[in-house]
Sequence to fold (295 residues):
Amino acid sequence: MTSVNDVELVIITGMSGAGKTVAVQSFEDLGFFCVDNLPPTLMPKILELMKESSNKMNRVALVMDLRGREFFDSLFKALDHFNDSDHVTPRILYLDADDDALVRRYKETRRSHPLAPLGLPLEGIQQERYLLQDLKGRAQTIYNTSKLKPRELREKILAEFSANKQSLFTVNVMSFGFKYGIPIDADLVFDVRFLPNPHYIDHMRPQTGLDEEVSTYVMKWTETQKFLEKTLDLLTFMLPHYKREGKSQLIVAIGCTGGQHRSVALTEEIARSFAKDYHTRITHRDIEKRKGAIS
Fold:
């Protein structure tokens, strides 16, 4: 059972258009179990699930807004229920913005306000602000996002709610085979099919780049060392900039023909080079698909 001190519940609420979508995405990146547009009547059920789970629901973020305005009376009852609990104390994150900023955002997105679907956005904003005033008064954290870019809001949330600030940015290095297609989620793709191929050495053919003999063979060539030097130099320059822009991870894909020999060996080497400075993760997408194929 998760101890009391390990349980963290954040309720994300506030003005429509103030950044709740960015907020919940940020909490997802932090590893929170997130539920969007949860009716307050279901909050006690969330409490039960948090009690019953071991460590799978010890960090939970719930988004609540006026899409569920008919439940606001039950919201305060649910909050009181949490406050009376020995297991969880909720923390309310309230996102606000000035009227002119909210009107501008509604004009830019060409959306109508949920409380004034046929009227002026300002009418809905003013009505919503009135309805939410009591909830705002109970919030422990209030962000005014009028002058914040989405990246800046995300940085504020990560800085305040992160349990491990050193693991916010992940370098995911992936090997793959071009014959199986380029990974659709890759940010950067490097083609290493120009390097000498262990496939053509009979006893190495069924092995992979995880085997020392294959790795040594791939790494011994001058062109491999030059490629590695230039790639590491490029990534060393780029990674801090990606991190500063608010990315939660960068996926670097290294491809050879079959994803078994060359790309695997280089993926291991590149990930090892950045492991001291970044949280790294290695994925060998195609290593088991066809051992012995040209790679």
